[in-house]
Amino acid sequence: MANLLIVASAPSDNTQRLRDAVLRGATHPDIDGINVQVQAPGESGPEDVLWADALILGTTENFGYMAGALKDWFERVYYPCLDQTAGLPYALYVRAGNAGQGAKVSVERIVTGLRWHAVQNALILNGDYQPDFEQECEALGMTLAAGLEAGIY
What pTM, to 2 d.p., does this model score? Predict the structure, then answer.
Protein backbone atom coordinates (compact mmCIF):
# COMPACT_ATOMS: atom_id res chain seq x y z
CA MET A 1 0.00 0.00 0.00
CA ALA A 2 1.25 3.46 -0.91
CA ASN A 3 0.59 6.46 1.31
CA LEU A 4 -0.73 9.80 0.05
CA LEU A 5 -0.84 12.81 2.35
CA ILE A 6 -3.01 15.80 1.51
CA VAL A 7 -2.06 18.93 3.47
CA ALA A 8 -4.44 21.74 2.66
CA SER A 9 -5.19 25.12 4.13
CA ALA A 10 -8.98 25.38 3.89
CA PRO A 11 -10.19 28.44 5.80
CA SER A 12 -13.47 28.91 3.90
CA ASP A 13 -16.38 26.84 2.64
CA ASN A 14 -15.05 27.12 -0.91
CA THR A 15 -11.54 25.96 -0.01
CA GLN A 16 -13.02 23.11 2.03
CA ARG A 17 -14.94 22.03 -1.08
CA LEU A 18 -11.69 22.07 -3.06
CA ARG A 19 -9.90 19.99 -0.43
CA ASP A 20 -12.83 17.54 -0.38
CA ALA A 21 -12.73 17.31 -4.19
CA VAL A 22 -9.02 16.41 -4.07
CA LEU A 23 -9.84 13.72 -1.52
CA ARG A 24 -12.72 12.44 -3.66
CA GLY A 25 -10.38 12.07 -6.61
CA ALA A 26 -7.62 10.42 -4.57
CA THR A 27 -10.06 7.88 -3.15
CA HIS A 28 -11.89 7.15 -6.40
CA PRO A 29 -13.34 3.60 -6.37
CA ASP A 30 -11.16 2.61 -9.36
CA ILE A 31 -7.99 3.34 -7.36
CA ASP A 32 -6.89 0.58 -5.04
CA GLY A 33 -3.90 0.22 -2.78
CA ILE A 34 -3.60 3.83 -1.62
CA ASN A 35 -3.87 5.00 1.99
CA VAL A 36 -4.95 8.64 2.04
CA GLN A 37 -4.74 11.05 4.94
CA VAL A 38 -6.05 14.62 4.85
CA GLN A 39 -4.70 17.09 7.36
CA ALA A 40 -4.81 20.80 8.00
CA PRO A 41 -1.31 22.26 8.16
CA GLY A 42 -1.60 22.78 11.93
CA GLU A 43 -2.44 19.09 12.45
CA SER A 44 0.40 17.72 10.34
CA GLY A 45 4.03 17.29 11.26
CA PRO A 46 7.28 15.68 10.14
CA GLU A 47 6.12 12.17 11.04
CA ASP A 48 3.25 12.54 8.57
CA VAL A 49 5.56 13.63 5.76
CA LEU A 50 7.90 10.73 6.52
CA TRP A 51 4.89 8.38 6.32
CA ALA A 52 3.91 9.68 2.88
CA ASP A 53 4.98 8.30 -0.48
CA ALA A 54 3.51 11.40 -2.17
CA LEU A 55 1.91 14.71 -1.17
CA ILE A 56 -0.77 17.04 -2.42
CA LEU A 57 -0.45 20.55 -1.04
CA GLY A 58 -3.31 23.05 -1.09
CA THR A 59 -3.12 26.71 -0.23
CA THR A 60 -4.85 29.99 -0.65
CA GLU A 61 -2.94 32.96 -1.97
CA ASN A 62 -2.61 35.52 0.80
CA PHE A 63 -0.97 38.85 0.02
CA GLY A 64 0.82 37.30 -2.95
CA TYR A 65 2.17 34.41 -0.84
CA MET A 66 1.09 30.99 0.38
CA ALA A 67 -1.24 30.74 3.38
CA GLY A 68 0.49 31.40 6.69
CA ALA A 69 -0.67 28.01 7.99
CA LEU A 70 1.15 26.22 5.15
CA LYS A 71 4.27 28.36 5.70
CA ASP A 72 4.20 27.38 9.39
CA TRP A 73 3.88 23.72 8.36
CA PHE A 74 6.92 24.02 6.10
CA GLU A 75 8.89 25.60 8.95
CA ARG A 76 8.05 22.64 11.20
CA VAL A 77 8.74 19.87 8.68
CA TYR A 78 11.66 21.30 6.72
CA TYR A 79 14.69 20.25 8.73
CA PRO A 80 13.32 16.99 10.15
CA CYS A 81 12.45 15.87 6.60
CA LEU A 82 15.26 17.46 4.60
CA ASP A 83 17.61 14.49 4.36
CA GLN A 84 14.93 11.81 4.30
CA THR A 85 12.44 12.94 1.66
CA ALA A 86 14.49 13.94 -1.38
CA GLY A 87 12.59 13.04 -4.53
CA LEU A 88 9.20 12.94 -2.79
CA PRO A 89 6.52 13.41 -5.47
CA TYR A 90 4.05 16.21 -4.87
CA ALA A 91 1.33 18.25 -6.54
CA LEU A 92 0.07 21.72 -5.63
CA TYR A 93 -3.17 23.59 -6.01
CA VAL A 94 -3.64 27.28 -5.24
CA ARG A 95 -6.94 29.09 -4.69
CA ALA A 96 -6.26 32.68 -5.63
CA GLY A 97 -8.38 35.75 -6.01
CA ASN A 98 -5.66 37.20 -8.23
CA ALA A 99 -2.97 35.56 -10.32
CA GLY A 100 -1.81 32.92 -7.81
CA GLN A 101 1.78 33.07 -9.01
CA GLY A 102 3.11 34.45 -5.72
CA ALA A 103 1.74 31.53 -3.74
CA LYS A 104 2.97 29.05 -6.34
CA VAL A 105 6.47 30.48 -6.40
CA SER A 106 6.69 30.66 -2.60
CA VAL A 107 5.84 26.94 -2.29
CA GLU A 108 8.18 26.02 -5.14
CA ARG A 109 11.11 27.78 -3.46
CA ILE A 110 10.71 25.68 -0.35
CA VAL A 111 10.11 22.35 -2.08
CA THR A 112 13.14 23.00 -4.26
CA GLY A 113 15.21 23.16 -1.08
CA LEU A 114 13.60 19.94 0.13
CA ARG A 115 14.37 18.39 -3.28
CA TRP A 116 10.78 17.24 -3.77
CA HIS A 117 9.61 16.50 -7.29
CA ALA A 118 6.51 18.10 -8.84
CA VAL A 119 4.65 15.43 -10.79
CA GLN A 120 2.07 17.82 -12.24
CA ASN A 121 2.02 21.49 -13.05
CA ALA A 122 0.60 23.56 -10.22
CA LEU A 123 -3.15 23.98 -10.49
CA ILE A 124 -3.99 27.64 -10.02
CA LEU A 125 -7.67 28.37 -9.48
CA ASN A 126 -7.93 32.13 -9.79
CA GLY A 127 -10.65 34.71 -10.08
CA ASP A 128 -14.18 34.34 -8.83
CA TYR A 129 -15.02 30.90 -7.48
CA GLN A 130 -16.25 28.53 -10.19
CA PRO A 131 -17.87 25.11 -9.63
CA ASP A 132 -15.44 23.76 -12.28
CA PHE A 133 -12.64 24.31 -9.75
CA GLU A 134 -13.90 21.28 -7.86
CA GLN A 135 -13.72 19.08 -10.97
CA GLU A 136 -10.14 20.24 -11.57
CA CYS A 137 -9.20 19.43 -7.98
CA GLU A 138 -10.83 16.03 -8.19
CA ALA A 139 -8.85 15.30 -11.35
CA LEU A 140 -5.63 16.40 -9.63
CA GLY A 141 -6.26 14.02 -6.72
CA MET A 142 -7.22 11.16 -9.01
CA THR A 143 -4.24 11.63 -11.30
CA LEU A 144 -1.69 11.68 -8.51
CA ALA A 145 -3.26 8.72 -6.68
CA ALA A 146 -3.52 6.66 -9.89
CA GLY A 147 0.12 7.41 -10.73
CA LEU A 148 1.16 6.40 -7.24
CA GLU A 149 -0.88 3.20 -7.46
CA ALA A 150 0.68 2.36 -10.84
CA GLY A 151 4.19 2.89 -9.49
CA ILE A 152 4.88 5.82 -11.79
CA TYR A 153 5.94 7.96 -8.81
Answer: 0.96
